[in-house]
Design brief:
single chain, 7 strands, Arc Repressor Mutant, subunit A, alpha+beta, four-stranded antiparallel sheet, 3 domains, Alpha-Beta Plaits, 258 residues, globular
Length: 258
Amino acid sequence: MQARSALFDVYGDHLRSRGSQAPVAAVVRMLDPVGIAAPAVRTAISRMVTQGWLEPVQLRGGRGYRTTERANRRLDEAGDRVYRRHVPSWDGHWHLAFVTPPAARAARTRLRADLTFLGYAELADNVWVSPFPRGELTTVLERAGARARSARADHFDTEPTGAWDLDALRSAYEGWLASADRLVGAQLAAHDDADEAAFAARFHLVHEWRKFLFADPGLPDALLPDDWPGRAAADLFATEAHRLKPGTDRFVARCLDA
């Protein structure tokens, strides 16, 4: 687990509802049970400030950091997808984005990653498709220095679901279903303090589940087979995350109050 990724999980899953800010010392305490050392936390915070995700703030508990508006938009969108909140209904149409990419190679690579995160797939060179228009598309394009024209497609001769590797996604969901119980159980057994154990277990659970944001575009049920394992995986995730939340919340409160 990388420190930067873990920080996004902390701010998105635990601090977003608590003012989106915390002293550095509290963040260090929260990440200690999941194996992220203090120097790595501080280095990751510094990089996230440079990248525009965090900004410094003086708090009662000392110097701290809060998420920027840009980060809050990304965290809220990710949270909606992680917890399947506000799942839109599909009207049967597809959203197309004809992208004029930036000239710099690094910017193009970052743009591709961001578009994939939003749920788009590249249907043809620089033509990206999604079952829904994504609210963050304009922000992502502007940040990369790219432009795009959009269109709505009513019909394809071949369904564009082939733009995503659904076989690999099926295997990933099946693997997650087979390993989630062991993941939670190992963390619960590794910590003597019950609330700390709940936090560590839920943190790892959410961290692993969040990886599907980069692979699963959230296709409508009408486009997925009846035996799609993503449904059972989502149910298991929701059940375990809910079960572990009370102890997790108590541990986070202790870290913030210490």
